[in-house]
Amino acid sequence: MPCSPEILDALKQHCGEMPVSEFRGQTRVIAPQAKLFEVLAFLKQEQGFDFLCDITCVDYLNYRGATDRFGLAYMLVRHEEWERLIVRCMLNEPDLTVPSATPLFEGANWLEREVWDMFGIPFEGHPDLRRILMPEEFTAHPLRKDYPLQGRGERHNFPVLRRGQA
Amino acid sequence: MPLTPSSLASPEETSEQDYLWTLNFGPQHPATHTTLRIVLKLDGERVVDAVPDIGYLHSGFEKIGEHLDYNQYVTVTDRMNYISPMANNVAWHHAVETLCGIELTPRGKYIRVIISELARISDHLLSTGAMGLDTGAFTFFLYAFYQREVIYDIFETLCGARFTNSYTRVGGSMYDMTPLVIEKIRTFVKTFPATVDDMERLLNRNRIFVDRMKDVGLLTKAEALSFSASGPVARASGVPCDLRKDEPYLAYADFDFNVCCATAGDCFARYYVRMAEIRESLKIVQQAIENLPSGPANIGVDERTALPTKQQVYQTIEGTITHFELTMANRGFTVPHEEVYAAVEAPNGELGFYLAGDGSDVAYRARCRPPSYIHFGIFPHLIRGHTLSDVVAVLGSLNIIAAELDR
């Protein structure tokens, strides 16, 4: 179901005008990069969106009609009266840094590490921003659209660990 | 750089102590069931800190999702959670249908409800059974596994595969339910409750089991919300969220069932909620199989998404064209140039897909929100201060599936 208009009004009052769109009953708000943390904090603390369902990212490199390179998506849920809101944040190179949501939601810890690993978006203020799925030696971010499906041969260049060195 | 004890992220005062031991639990350990690795820091037998290390499978299923079309990708969802593949199939095609705006036929909805509830029963049987096995209750495990075989038989009769079902399709399913399947499900619904009674009698008041499960791995309600827990893990902590009730998808609004909750938030509560959910799922299956609507299982030819029946292909020109278009490479159906997030209540919790469609028959981005990944992130918090033998109990109660951890 779409997000109730009172919440969107309150958000507009507090954090300024933001583009809002709706598709198949899902409301999406595009927050500017500078205000992302403010928007998330307001939604959690004032509007009761206390459940961060997911954080993900889309690389719009060759998406038809796209103007921005990356789009973060925060899936927020208000669990008391079930309501969903998707907060988007559009990012462009060279400044991809966004503030970490970990102070608000502890569950953001791993989700942000995954976005960093897969897309190379650094989260400022994250307590432990390491790669989570790929090995530490890996330099690329595999879910970016300019990364080929079959990889770039990184596996052949990994150092071989012998039993003595391990 | 491989994960070493020096990179353990733990509080200052504990990581400095030189009497602490580092123990690698996994990647291959009988109690981890799959390739999970946990680096434990031990003070004697007490766990001071734990760092889960994931990413051993390299399945790359989100990248593959950008290269397979909407019907082909269902085989990949089987491998995400191989304990309950049917629920994953339903989740994936639920997301695709939400993106395309397809409304299923009543029979199609009921069929999906039945198979996802059977998948839930089968998943909970394995998870509670393994929980029992890891804490020493072997008979319980055998009881659970026998009933899983019965459910596999039902799935085999339904779609020809026991394990990797790949049953759903956009706009419906691979085959309709035959009378034989319906009969088998009816028999299962009749015979299964006796086994559940036996299983509960075996463990609910079992001294060893209760002592190992009670007050272990406590997760409070506020923590469960903050850590984004969902499914039985959240419900055992007193978060009464269930997508089947909160945003009823498919035909869940038609059925009478309860959301099972507990307030303790420990391992025993998670076991208890799962056993209660088995009974509720059984109730849903019973209602659905008795009221199974007649009519087509797949949506019609005019929507141009589901394959038409052979009769339609041979006797109508519309059927021939649709069949031809759908089976041609790079033809298929078109999806809107839009993005959507859709989730179902999988056995482990909220299983959602974030889909970005670009108009073609291949998803531009197929993000999966797997419940196990989120739950494994809570693990260090749950295990701190407990003993080494509790690692197994907590892991079992969270039901971590390694394939879901990967991307």
Automatic annotation (TrEMBL), chain B:
Major subcellular site: membrane
Reactions accelerated catalytically: a quinone + NADH + 5 H(+)(in) = a quinol + NAD(+) + 4 H(+)(out)
MF terms (GO), sorted A to Z: NAD binding; NADH dehydrogenase (quinone) (non-electrogenic) activity; quinone binding
NADH-quinone oxidoreductase subunit D domain ranges (all copies): 134-407
InterPro entries per the UniProt record, alphabetical: NADH_Q_OxRdtase_suD, NDH1_su_D/H, NiFe-Hase_large
Topology in membrane: Peripheral membrane protein
E.C. numbers: 7.1.1.-
Keywords linked to the UniProt accession: Cell membrane, Membrane, NAD, Oxidoreductase, Quinone, Translocase, Transport, Ubiquinone
GO cellular component: plasma membrane
UniProt cross-references to Pfam families, sorted A to Z: Complex1_49kDa (PF00346)
Keyword Coiled coil carried by entry: no
Location of the protein in the cell: Cell membrane
Enzyme superclass (EC): translocase
Domain of life of the source: Bacteria
Family designation: Belongs to the complex I 49 kDa subunit family.
Quaternary structure (record): NDH-1 is composed of 14 different subunits. Subunits NuoB, C, D, E, F, and G constitute the peripheral sector of the complex.
Biological function: NDH-1 shuttles electrons from NADH, via FMN and iron-sulfur (Fe-S) centers, to quinones in the respiratory chain. The immediate electron acceptor for the enzyme in this species is believed to be ubiquinone. Couples the redox reaction to proton translocation (for every two electrons transferred, four hydrogen ions are translocated across the cytoplasmic membrane), and thus conserves the redox energy in a proton gradient.
Entry protein name: NADH-quinone oxidoreductase subunit D
Organism expressing this protein natively: Lignipirellula cremea
Gene name per UniProt: nuoD
